[in-house]
Automatic annotation (TrEMBL):
EC number: 2.7.4.9
Enzyme class: transferase
PROSITE patterns, per database record: THYMIDYLATE_KINASE (PS01331)
PANTHER family noted in UniProt: THYMIDYLATE KINASE
CDD domains to which the protein is assigned, alphabetical: TMPK (cd01672)
Official protein name in the record: dTMP kinase
Involved pathway(s): Pyrimidine metabolism; dTTP biosynthesis
Stretches assigned to the Thymidylate kinase-like domain: 11-191
Protein keywords: ATP-binding, Kinase, Nucleotide biosynthesis, Nucleotide-binding, Transferase
Length: 212
């Protein structure tokens, strides 16, 4: 019998919501329960495309807005063969940001529609579960100053948050909203519970295509 595929689990949210910490903790918890799991993150800054994106985010280079949007998408597509292989091998992937960040960030810029922004990512492997770490701007502010990368301003993050709210209305995606204002363990418990709940379904259904 063919081995069961892994689940594709994505964590999204605005900056400082604790995505990276929670991805690491989830991978650890899954492994402890005997479920092979690995973390991935987008952008993956290690590839040639990822290095272009990284220089842009660090403001070491400027890129035209449509161009950088397509590079973020290309950075996901270039990893698709690796993702599919791992999922087929039964490895669950816990992904820090995905196409939803791509759409939310670019469409927060003037002149970009959600539709246009979604097109390049249409057909990517569809996550079995997308958890949005919800944190209001006042709570985010308590967690300290923004960094110095592009997009790290409260006005832009507010616009991004609004775009995420719009994306979450799409019932073709399995969204769960997580209250990220709880302590780290509280957030982790919620994330772990939702993740363990999707395993059965993920194992018994083929990997879908996003936004198709
Ligand atoms: P991070 O590496 O700290 O998560 O930051 C990546 C930044 O890039 C963050 O501000 C969100 C933004 N971003 C996009 O604009 N488009 C994308 O497709 C992704 C994945 C991230």
């Amino acid at each position: 019998m063919a081995s069961k595929r892994g689940a594709l689990i994505v964590l999204e949210g605005v900056d400082r919501a604790g995505k990276t910490t929670q991805c690491n903790k989830l991978v650890q918890a899954l492994i402890e329960r005997g479920r092979p799991a690995e973390m991935m993150r987008f952008p993956d800054r290690s590839t040639t495309i990822g290095q272009l994106i990284s220089a842009y985010l660090q403001k070491k280079s400027d890129l035209e807005d449509h161009t950088v949007h397509l590079l973020f998408s290309a950075n996901r597509w270039e990893l698709v063969p690796v993702m599919k292989k791992k999922l087929e091998q039964g490895i669950t992937l816990v992904v820090d940001r995905y196409a939803f960040s791509g759409v939310a960030f670019t469409s927060a810029k003037p002149g970009f529609s959600l539709d246009w922004c979604m097109k390049p990512d249409e057909g990517l492997p569809k996550p079995d579960l997308v958890m949005f770490l919800q944190l209001n701007p006042a709570e985010a502010a308590l967690r300290g100053q923004f960094g110095t990368e592009r997009y790290e301003t409260s006005a832009f993050q507010k616009a991004v948050h609004e775009r995420f709210e719009q994306l979450m209305k799409d019932s073709s995606v399995n969204w769960k909203v997580i209250d990220a204002s709880q302590n780290i363990e509280g957030v982790h418990n919620d994330i772990r519970t939702h993740s363990l709940n999707v395993f059965n379904e993920a194992q018994n259904t083929p990997l879908g295509e996003l936004w198709r």
